[in-house]
Amino acid sequence: MPTTLTAFADVTTSDSALRRFLHGLPGVDAVGLEARAASLGTRSIKTTAKAYAIDLAISMIDLTTLEGADTPGKVRALSAKAANPDPTDRTTPMTAAVCVYPDMVATAKAALNGADVKVASVATAFPAGRAALPVKLADTADAVAAGADEIDMVIDRGAFLAGRYLETYELIRSVKAACVRPDGSAARLKVIFETGELSTYDNIRRASWIGMMAGADFIKTSTGKVGVNATPANTLLMLEAVRDFKAQTGIQIGVKPAGGIRTTKDAIKFLVLVNETVGEDWLSNHWFRFGASSLLNDLLMQRQKLSTGRYSGPDYVTVD
């Protein structure tokens, strides 16, 4: 079995070769995919299993603020919340990361002050991805130089939907190279497809394979800036893609659903998808993340309900 991406060297030599490969992937049974996602979403998780799932979900959150009105004070407050989500209960896990715009990376890094929370930065002209390649690479390099541990890039959906698959592949490869620091270490790369704009499940599968072949460390559903973001069905499809990719190459890729995941019930549904599709190997924040801003508040409320038997008042959690 090939264990490196050299297994795909032949299919990435030209647009026509890559197109043949991608269009040769099995078609997605949309009805079957949605039915399985819905069925797994009905699983009931109770008591100790629910408590474990809540803590696991908290530890998987990329706590995110991506607004034009973001200020250093807001980013510092969000970073403090990521490192200490519930000041009344120090057993609460930290979140996986804080996700901000490139100009706020240094602020987040300083605010975290060595806490075991990653700083992720969006890049490549987020969220639309409509900029020249040098601009996208400079955007990435600036974030990495400021201390970003992870880069969340967006693909050019226009290029992908026009069938320019090799251009999409080469963009990801170029951004991956820009994630490397002078000392040889590298920020991990999450590749955002904006699944709500890809129109079909077949396109989501093809985008997943392009991202994985190009060297993504994570594949990510969405920016959170469009009408349709993460859904159980599109996340299930991406989980199946990383499962099949690992079976073929031996390389494990993470998955990050983002946008629209707001409640504990939602988060647990996604954790069930992970467990039933790819198994325990992905049940850690090294391989699975939630891109979210409000989800953490609901998880904290439910966590306290399990420990005390009652819901807290409206001021128990901070308002993001």
Keywords:
320 residues; alpha/beta; eight-stranded parallel β-sheet; 8 strands; 45% helix
Description:
The structure is a single chain. By secondary structure, the protein is an alpha/beta fold. It is built from 12 helices and 8 strands. It has an 8-stranded parallel β-sheet. The longest helix has 18 residues, at 232-249. The protein starts with 14 loop residues before the first helix and ends in a 12-residue tail after the last helix.
Short description:
This protein has 320 residues and is of the alpha/beta class. It has helices at 15-23, 30-40, 47-59, 72-83, 105-112, 133-145, 157-161, 165-178, 201-214, 232-249, 264-277, 295-308; strands spanning 61-64, 97-100, 118-123, 150-154, 188-192, 218-220, 254-256, 290-292. Helix 4 (72-83) links the parallel strand 1 and strand 2 (97-100).
Kindly state the mean pLDDT as a whole number?
A: 94
- Principal-axes geometry comes out as globular
Roughly how much helix do the residues carry, as a percent range? 40-55%
How many strand segments?
A: 8
Radius of gyration, whole Å: 19 Å
N- to C-terminal distance:
47 Å
Total DSSP helices = 12
Largest sheet: 8 strands, parallel
Lateral arrangement of strands in the main beta sheet? 7-6-5-4-3-2-1-8
Relative strand content: 5-15%
Q: What class would the helix/strand composition place it in?
A: alpha/beta
- Helix-strand pattern, N to C? HHHEHEHEHEHHEHEHEHEH
